[in-house]
Amino acid sequence: MRVTMVGHSTVVVEGARSRLLTDPWFGTSGNLAYARLHPPAFRRDEMREIDAVLLSHRHWDHTDRSFLRSLDGAIPVLGPPGSLATRWLNGARNYQPMRPWQSHEVGAAVVTAVPALHLARTIGFVVQLEGVCAYFAGDTYHRPFMSEIGRKFRIDVALMPVATFRLPMTMGEHGAVAAAADLGAATIIPIHLGIAPRSPLLRTAQTVDSFERRLRDCGSTAAVVHLREGEAWESAASEEQRSTSRIG
After folding, report:
1. CB 11 within 8 A of CB 159
2. In the chain, what are the domains?
3. Could you give the 3-state DSSP secondary structure of residue 17?
4. Contact, 89 vs 65, CB < 8 A?
5. Looking at residue 132, what is its pLDDT?
6. What is the pLDDT of residue 245?
7. Closest Cα partner for 141 from 127, 161, 121?
8. Facing residues of 67 across strands?
9. Which whole-number Å values give the CA distances from 241 to 16, 148, 194, in the listed order?
10. Predicted TM-score (pTM) above 0.85
11. Straight-line distance from the first to the last Cα atom of the chain, in angstroms, rounded to the nearest whole number
């Protein structure tokens, strides 16, 4: 399995026969409240050769409607349940709602929806591919369901928020440390780092470094891999049977 950071919470999870894209957002400027810190590593037209989109929720920084409308109708967009109007607003032609613990096969990958809690209707995802199990949190707070996810799956790598703003929209470093313990992942890849509040009053001192310090203070040995835009992480299992990535 190879994980490539496109930017913010947009990530490619792929193997030899499956290529999945999470929470697509290719905007470059943010909105009135939040600024985008760095442009995405790839353009919309460079990311259409995918097998499925994993959409955790419908907020502006996770749902690029122009991109979803441009996709071939055969490409499924897996996301939380919603009304027909909500699905139309997503822009996806092949929207397939999933409830927690439902699974969907995409090529060689098995994608399972898992519980999540946010200000909007949301789910997380577990992707099992090439003997590796990845958890994608989307935007969620830490809640007891994290322990259930950790019990049901042997999580190898967790993609999750580790810092937040005022008012918190995701789990911050305290919740992320607790989630890391619940999930038992060997590797943590921070996500949701691509925007910052325009107002200084909404900013916090939370960073990937401060999260990692708290993690170590709690005795965790999990690796924290901070991917910048365009950088990739590859599992040891994938390195042994390396295949050429379709990115680039």
Report:
1. yes
2. 2-234 (3.60.15.10)
3. coil
4. yes
5. 98
6. 45
7. 161
8. none
9. 9, 31, 32
10. yes
11. 17
Question: What is the enclosing helix (H) or strand (E) of 152?
Answer: helix 145-152
194 exposure class (CB count in 10 Å sphere: 0-12, 13-18, 19+): buried
- Cα–Cα distance measured from residue 192 to residue 7, given in angstroms and rounded to the nearest whole number: 8
Averaged pLDDT of the chain: 91
Give per-residue pLDDT as tens, 204-229: 999 999 999 999 999 999 999 999 99
222-248 per-residue burial string, b: 16 or more CB within 10 A, e: under 16: bebbbbebeebbebeebeeeeeebebe
* pLDDT for 141 beyond 80: yes
Minimal CA–CA distance to 191: which of 2, 4, 1?
A: 4
Identity (one letter) of the amino acid at 89? L
Q: In this structure, are residues 242 and 19 in contact, taking their beta carbons and an 8 Å threshold?
A: no
Tell me the Ramachandran region of residue 60: left when phi exceeds 0, alpha when psi lies from -120 to 50, beta otherwise.
alpha
- How much is the pLDDT for 138? 93
Reply yes or no on whether the pLDDT at 239 is more than 60.
no
User: Looking up tokens 């929470």, which residue turns up?
Assistant: 23
158, 179 contact by CB (below 8 A)? yes
- The string of pLDDT tens digits covering residues 5-46 is 999 999 999 999 999 999 999 999 899 999 999 999 999 999
